[in-house]
Design a protein that fits this description.
Elements (H helix, E strand, L loop, with lengths): L57 E2 L5 E8 L8 H12 L9 E2 L3 E5 L3 H14 L5 E4 L8 E6 L3 E10 L7 E9 L4 E9 L11 H13 L6 E7 L21 H7 L9 E3 H8 L10 E2 L4 E2 L5 E2 L2 E2 L2 E6 L3 E7 L29 E6 L5
Parallel strand pairs: 1-3, 2-4, 9-10
Antiparallel strand pairs: 2-18, 4-6, 5-6, 7-8, 8-9, 10-16, 11-16, 12-15, 13-14, 17-18
Helix pairs in contact: 1-2, 3-4
Length: 365
């Protein structure tokens, strides 16, 4: 099978798969830039309801591909164990891929969870997935705003490190290096949760500075690179309700994230938009956040604004094959503010909807 340049490793390390009980044996290879404690791996499974019979048949992703999910679980300010469990259920009941198969995620990056929340979410995943098994990998301290679950059935954990927000140094983001075990191809994934607003030094430019810093932190990777997470900003200068197909012009941060840069001599593509445009299909349903409060929208109506602010960006050495927001997920497609799932209200697992992508570990054709 065709392999991406610079991705192939001649020999799989003995410890390339995640240890089933504890992640510490892998830490010798990790570069850690802060003193946060490391989390345990698989842990003890707790009794949970069995997955619904309606859940699609579970498969592992094919060789030379990874399935990646980014989700803001909204657990820090409004904690709910019931809602957290619904995150795993929503992922397990995600619609099948375009080829008719349901592929279990290989990497899940989670924003707005504590280390304890992440352990519980891992247990929920392991209760709902039967032939794929998930472990925590990377930093889990409170300052790490992006935390990772890795499917140890399909992926080997290699190393991780964190870096600080340019304008708020006590906030840290994280990258992990993992290996797709069937093809021995490595991929580097950076997770961020960039603030909606910055005050003080830097101000509005902090978002631009941080996307460039994320690219800089991953610039040395000799693998395909994904930068994923909650960027807390729409891509376009005009709001979604007045620009449903995202044609009005890019926000400057988005241009800094995607265009060729001297920071890393790479370009990145927005996986969801790339796949929608390739299929000549609408962007209307790809929003990822719904505001709780009513506001006056760009078209003059009053409603709950929906924005696309969570992204999976892929470097040019990767091939996004399919990417979507969780649609309809917990929402009613044409009734903003309403919950369209059961059991209410907890099935609305957050004010965000997760984003998933199936990515080929080779260059775009």
């Amino acid at each position: 099978m065709k392999q991406a340049s610079g991705h192939h490793s001649p020999r799989r390390d003995a410890q390339s798969a995640i240890h089933p009980d504890y992640v510490a044996p892998l830490m010798a290879a990790a570069t850690v830039t802060h003193s946060g404690a490391q989390a345990t791996g698989q842990g003890t499974r707790l009794p949970r309801p069995s997955p619904s019979a309606a859940a699609p048949v579970e498969r592992s992703s094919p060789p030379n591909e990874v399935v990646v999910i980014t989700v803001n679980a909204q657990q820090i300010l409004t904690h709910s164990r019931a809602r957290l469990r619904e995150v795993a259920k929503a992922v397990r009941h995600r619609p099948a891929a375009a080829d008719g198969n349901y592929y279990a995620p290989d990497v899940v990056m989670v924003n707005e969870v504590s280390a304890m929340d992440l352990e519980k979410l891992r247990d929920d995943f392991n209760d709902l997935f039967s032939s794929n098994s998930y472990s925590i990998f990377g930093a889990t301290s409170d300052d790490a705003k992006s935390k990772f679950l890795v499917n140890q059935t399909t992926m080997g954990a290699r190393s991780f490190r964190t870096w600080p927000d340019v304008c708020v140094p006590d906030v840290r983001y994280q990258l992990i290096d993992v290996r797709e075990l069937q093809s021995d191809i490595d991929v580097t994934i950076g997770g961020v949760h960039i603030r909606a607003d910055y005050t003080g030094k830097g101000g509005r430019s902090c978002k631009n500075q941080n996307v460039l810093e994320a690219r800089k932190q991953l610039a040395a990777a000799e693998t395909g690179v994904l930068i994923i997470g909650d960027f807390n900003r729409r891509a376009m200068v005009v709001q979604r309700e007045c620009d449903p197909e995202e044609t009005s012009g890019e926000e400057s941060w988005y241009t800094d994230m995607t265009s060729l840069s001297s920071v890393d001599n790479r370009t990145y593509i927005d996986s969801v938009r790339y796949c929608r445009r390739a299929e000549d299909s609408t962007m209307w349903h790809e929003w990822t956040h719904e505001q709780k409060d009513l506001s006056t929208l760009c078209d003059g109506t009053v409603g709950h604004r929906r924005n696309r602010i969570d992204y999976i960006f892929a470097s040019e050495s990767l091939q996004p094959l399919e990417a979507h927001a969780d649609h309809p997920g917990w929402a009613r497609a044409d009734e903003p503010g309403a919950i369209g799932c059961t059991p209410t209200p907890d099935c609305k697992y957050a004010d965000h909807r997760f984003v998933w992508a199936r990515v080929g570990l080779g260059p775009r054709e």
